[in-house]
Amino acid sequence: MATQPTIPKGTRDFLPIEMVRRNYIFDTIKKVFKLFGYMPIETPAMETLNTLMGKYGEEGDRLIFKILNSGDYLSKVQEEEISRENSSKLSYKICEKALRYDLTVPFARFVVQHRNDIQFPFKRFQIQPVWRADRPQKGRYREFFQCDVDVIGSNSLLNELELVQIIDEVFNKLKLNTIIKINNRKVLAGIAEVIGHQDKFVDITVAIDKLEKIGLENVNTELLSKGLTDDAIAKLQPFFTIKGTNSEKLNIMRDLLQNSETGMKGVEELDTVFAYINSFEFKADIEFDITLARGLNYYTGAIFEVVAKDVKIGSICGGGRYDDLTGIFGLKDVSGVGVSFGADRIYDVLNQLDNFPESAEATTKLMFVNFGKDEEKYCLPLLAKVRNAGINAEIYPESSKMKKQMTYANKKGISYVALVGKNEIEKSIVNLKNMQTGEQKDVTVDELIEELTARHCEEGRRSNP
Question: For residues 190 and 256, what is the distance between their CA atoms, to the nearest angstrom?
Fold first, then answer.
């Protein structure tokens, strides 16, 4: 009996129409990255386990997909080590490699390894899949693509402004209404300091990051379970009720954090970033959000998160500044900042809103109907000429019934069909049919190319006004 084919949970196959739409997202994002002077790199799907472990916090480490060593992976393990049931220690002995959890830590490793081959500040973008052993659910997958853009080797807060501009430009081109939320990890460290729990900084940030998802009461309960006192939790509450404009919120933060040097430094950095932002017009709403924490341990300064206004699906883009991520690989004091676009969630949002342009629906613009060997022989040079003009085109491979060929064109979403029979051959013309309107007209091949090229340009302008 044949085995029923399946794929692992949290992964997906993509049909051609889905790939065309995904590539529309990737191409849009790439164009914006290049517009701002960023260059592409790639890193391997797997890294050494030591490269990844300990960089994402306790929760992140648990979600790393480890790869068993080749061959007899238990050959170097003593029997008593297995019986101790210490899976964490055992994993280091039987797994030397792991699938990358994100693109930022591999990027830091890349920078250190290739520091003599790159120019600082180094502006890179990277579009590749990552893997997380998370529980699959709507908008959350175990294999998904990230579209990262980072600049490393510069402390300037102009880089934060540029990232906000990139975010706004990408989602403007994708026609998505968004909110860009900004905070600073120094502000969060200052909060931990003024409530008397610097030692619980990670616990506090992890809990605060869940505020929107689980609510204030549950956040307070979690903090209590992590060892915070009732007094400390009470001191924390005013930070969750801050309202007003970005400027008003920052002024309130100055008062609340006046006894924390670190916290005040974070407020100053936010002040500078928002001063830059206020000098420009943005399509997105941009707000200071004190509850934004982002759980990754390596963030040290500004942090960003983007949500779609019209669809509830969680973050569709996020990132922040990391001051010494390369230091763990031996290159100290190299600051970087970047954001990552979640292509899969962006796809889901565009799909739900039916926001993909018509130009992203089909790859083939023109199909030549196949009437037989003589007509096929005549059409093949015309097909080559059309392709040389940059128009995606094909010929039906067999002289099947007209209904079958037209059904194929319809189902594939082909915009135009070229009908060339004996009469057309004698007159050196093509009967061009618009598959959407049903309109048919006789044209020369040069006129056909001119019309389809003009239509393609018009669709491009509608997609990117």
Answer: 9
Prediction pTM value: 0.87
Half-sphere exposure (CA, 13 Å, Cβ side) for 305?
A: 19
For the purposes of burial, counting CB atoms within 10 Å of the CB of 71, is it exposed (0-12), middle (13-18) or buried (19 or more)? exposed
Q: Write the CATH number for 409.
A: 3.40.50.800
244-250 CB contacts, 8 Å cutoff, 24+ apart? 246/274, 246/286, 246/287, 246/288, 247/274, 249/288, 249/290, 250/274, 250/288
Strand pairing category for 366-368 and 315-322: unpaired
* Structure-model confidence comparison of residues 214 and 424, the more confident one: 424
Neighbours of 357 (CB within 10 A): 16
The pLDDT value recorded for residue 2 is 78
Say which residue the tokens 């995606």 belong to.
392
Q: In Å, what is the CA distance from 459 to each residue of 24, 88, 449, 452, 464?
A: 13, 55, 15, 10, 9
Query: Ramachandran region of residue 454, left (φ > 0), alpha (ψ -120 to 50) or beta?
Result: alpha
324, 352, 380 - which closes a domain: 352
SS3 per residue for 227-267? CCCHHHHHHHHHHHHCCCCHHHHHHHHHHHCCCCHHHHHHH
In this structure, is residue 70 part of a structural domain?
no
Cβ neighbours, 10 Å, residue 72: 9
Amino acid at 314: G
Tens of pLDDT, residues 250-264: 999 999 999 999 999
Residue 191 lies in a domain: yes
Task: Determine which helix (DSSP H) or strand (DSSP E) holds 296, and give its type and residue range.
Answer: none
Two structure tokens written together for 318: 């996020």
